[in-house]
Amino acid sequence: MKITLIKGDGIGPEITESMKKVVSALKLDIDFEEINAGLSVFEAEGEYIPQRLFDSIKKNKIAIKGPITTPIGHGFRSINVELRKRFDLYANIRPIKAPGPLDLKFDGVDMVIFRENTEDLYAGVEEMISEDEAHSIKIITREKSERIIRSAFNYARENKRKKVSIITKANIMKLTDGLFLDIGRKIAKEFPDIEFEELLVDNTAMQMVINPQKFDVLVTENLYGDILSDLGAGLVGGLGLMPGVNKGEDIAIYESIHGSAPDIAGKNLANPIALLLTFALLLDDISEKDKAAKLRKAIYETLKDKENYTKDLGGSNTTSGITEAIINNLGD
Ligand code: NAI
């Protein structure tokens, strides 16, 4: 099977290298079609996303990517946002669960965040009103809200989850968030087997750091989802461990939550586990659940020994060192 691989910037090349070693150890019949995007491509070719990348994703339908650096300002649109919009990858799905026995403040956190990925304040509709005033337009549509909320409920049902919480600020943004909430209430009626909860985003943030075990599946708009999923990552070991996927109707791009980590790039310090768990999500979706379980088990075993920990987990192991430990724990 062919999968498009985007190495990305910063720590991207190091963690994708680690992933390739693990794929080889898992003896999977996967052929990576490597096409890069981002800063390095811009410097060499003058464009951030080459047409051949769009063509490859369209053909293979599945891509896995390392992080891409987004230059701030200069009227520049994020490459990540561009890819999500181009392929209409409307659902950003982020499981929040510790992948091993870590020293954490909370045990038993196990939630999944469904974040709408294409609109809200990330739609990129901004304008300068004057030199001293800038506006950004928040866009919420019925169609896009319905499909993210419905996919969260379908996921809950298929994965035997008990509850879906819809997160808004509908008390203040009565039209935009009000529409999102109203759609949620209607869809919840189609799923009487799933408990439905309405929460405001500020309250959610507080509850996530007081009683995070109460959450199951959360569905929310783009900005709130972005922030809450980083908050969630902090609850279960940090950005170096958190997987994610962007899904549309028939195309998916798998990527971890973290960015290109320029502070540690090129130093063999990055934790590859986030990308490896992202790859495990991909395996689940291509009917390789046994291999996905084997990889998760190897990661769990590796995290039992603090000697294996990289710097983000308080240890001193390297990217290549922890990759080797995981491969050893895969067994035969
Ligand atoms: P970041 O996630 O790159 O880094 C935040 C902190 O976490 C840093 O201290 C970094 O060293 C650490 N960190 C992140 N991933 C790690 C890993 N795998 N192992 C160990 N430590 C890790 O966030 P930041 O600094 O805000 O963004 C850097 C660049 O990445 C920006 O250009 C941003 O736009 C881009 N970015 C790209 C994303 C993507 O491609 N999906 C997502 C988020 C940010």
Automatic annotation (TrEMBL):
PROSITE patterns: IDH_IMDH (PS00470). GO terms for molecular function: isocitrate dehydrogenase (NAD+) activity; magnesium ion binding; NAD binding. SMART domains: Iso_dh (SM01329). It comes from the Bacteria. It holds the Pfam family Iso_dh. Keywords: Oxidoreductase. One of its GO terms (biological process) is isocitrate metabolic process. Residues 2-326 form the Isopropylmalate dehydrogenase-like domain. Belongs to the isocitrate and isopropylmalate dehydrogenases family. This is Putative isocitrate dehydrogenase, NAD-dependent. It comes from Anaerococcus tetradius.
